[in-house]
Design brief:
81% of the residues lie in helices and 0% in strands. The chain is mainly alpha-helical. Keywords: Membrane, Transmembrane, Transmembrane helix.
Length: 79
């Protein structure tokens, strides 16, 4: 059975979904690494994971993803 479905999804929204997926997977990986470094007593790794420069980078990525989401919603509402 063929379904005539027009695939007109927003490309920006696809990029946002992919970016959000990998951003959250990265945060999950960092959380696991932080917990394991505390459990096994690796203070140097925990210090690197808690550094402000790393978290500033993640905040910038999160803001960029939010802006991409907002732009995708505006473009979607116009079309």
């Amino acid at each position: 059975m063929k379904i005539n479905h027009k695939n007109d999804e927003n490309l920006l929204f696809k990029w946002f979904c992919q970016g959000l997926k990998y951003f959250l997977l990265t945060l999950l990986g960092l959380a696991i690494a932080l917990v394991l470094s505390h459990v096994f007593g690796a203070a140097s790794i925990a210090g690197m994971l808690l550094s402000t420069s790393l978290w500033i980078l993640f905040v910038r990525i999160a803001v960029s993803l939010f802006c991409l989401f907002a732009i995708a919603m505006i473009v979607e509402s116009w079309s």
